[in-house]
Amino acid sequence: MSAKIISGNEVSKQLKDEMKEEVVKLKAQGMEPCLSVILVGEDPASKVYVLNKKKACEYIGIKSLETRLPATTTTEELLKVIEGYNNDKTVHGILCQLPLPKHIPETKILRAILPEKDVDCFHPFNVGLISIGEVRFLPCTPAGVIELIKRGGFETAGKDVVILGRSNIVGRPLSNMLDQRDMNATVTMCHTKTKNLKERCAAADIVIGAIGRPEYVKADMVKEGAVVIDVGINRVDAPGTEKGFKLVGDVAFDEVKEKAAAITPVPGGVGPMTIAMLMKNTLTAAKEAFFKK
Ligand code: GUN
Question: Is there an atom of ligand 1 within 6 Å of 97 CB?
Answer without folding.
Answer: yes
